[in-house]
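In this section we walk through a basic example: taking a raw amino acid sequence and producing a predicted 3D structure, encoded as discrete structure tokens. The instruction is simple. Fold the sequence below.
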Amino acid sequence: MTDPHVLPAHLPAPVDDGGAAHLTGQPWPALALPATDGTQVRVSGLPGRSVVYGYPMTARPDHPLPDGWDVMPGARGCTPQACAFRDHHAQLAALGARVFGLSTQSTAYQQEAAGRLHLPYPLLSDAALELTGALRLPTFDVPGVPAGERPTLLRRITLIVRDGVTEQVFYPVFPPDRSAEQVLEWLERHPT
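The resulting token sequence is shown next.
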């Protein structure tokens, strides 16, 4: 079994397909998403800055990864990315930023990862693809996801949202385990 905490050597880098070019300056819709902490989160209504990192799918110990996962550019690395945001959470909070993970997986599926990885921030579920569709977030379809989960997955993207409007977009995100550091560096250069 592949260790989801470790990125394999020679991981293929995703290319910028232009799928996020429209997002800077875009207001977020007034949609509430279920979170792994049991709340409903409406990012559009949060004051100040929020960091929302979209990811395809966290690995679970009881489910194999879809065939070819490691060779799909941008697919592999959700666990290292989540752990990097966990490890830098206090620094991000000190800069005034809330952190949220976002995927198209169900809340029940996400709760396993949030607990296992000891995430100090909630994961948001867009299983109905409402936010994904409203913002036109970049996606890809993958056969072989766990039963009951959506085969349409988010491409890895990190958005900084300020007062309900997308302020900064990181896309494509690579390598995923450096995503939190890239966000920290940007926030330090752009204080509120």
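Looking at the output, two observations stand out. The mean pLDDT is 93. The helical segments are 78-87, 89-94, 107-116, 130-135, 179-189. In the next section we compare this with other chains.
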